Amino acid sequence: MSMRSAMQQHGIRAQQREQTRQSLLREGRRLFSGRGYGAVSLAEIVQAAGVTKGALYHHFTGKTDLFRAVLEELQQEVGQRVAAAADTHDDPWTQLTAGCQEFLTATTDPDIQRVMLVDGPAVLGWSQWRAMDEAASARHLADALSFLMDEGIVAPQPVAPLVHLLSGAMNEAALWLASSSDPEDLNHTKAALGQLLQALRIG
Question: What's the pLDDT tens digit per position in 119-163?
């Protein structure tokens, strides 16, 4: 086999491995979000993805590791939605409020909510879930608040307590909204969040 053929074969195998990984993530996400982590078996995931258990173990150490990857993917998607909502505005204060409002909207999607907020802490443990949540969103919130403090829009204060208070409030609100049957509750919660954030503003 020539070097060129060997490189082509290597490229094809790498592409096939990535396709297998994406298929596992896609089916894992569909099953975890639809029925919950505890109700889904490893055998069911590999069957839905059309791969063997050996193929799954090539990419993940097991069901929990696959779930962690699905959660990380969802957190990134929510983060992208928040950033996109913020980026439609030029004013830094409006960027913060629009981003926080979009977080509420995104995480009240029942599929996202189940993986991110219900099963996430239960499956991975609070400390690991909190670390992932902090890496995915809290850091950006901290950066936004720090910038607003530097600009004199929010009163100077320790950032970490404020970030944890706001993150906790938004996560709890998203959990409550996901179980709500009144479509107006999202608008009411967004309004309440807006008032909560407005109380921080001095400039």
Answer: 999 999 999 998 998 888 888 899 999 999 999 999 999 999 999
**Domain end position, chosen among 19, 39, 60:** 60
Q: Which residue has the higher pLDDT, 32 or 175?
A: 32
Global pTM?
0.86
Instruction: For residue 17, give the CATH number of its domain.
Output: 1.10.10.60
Q: Which of 156, 92, 81, 90 has the alpha carbon at shortest distance from 116?
A: 81
CB 69, CB 77: distance < 8 Å = no
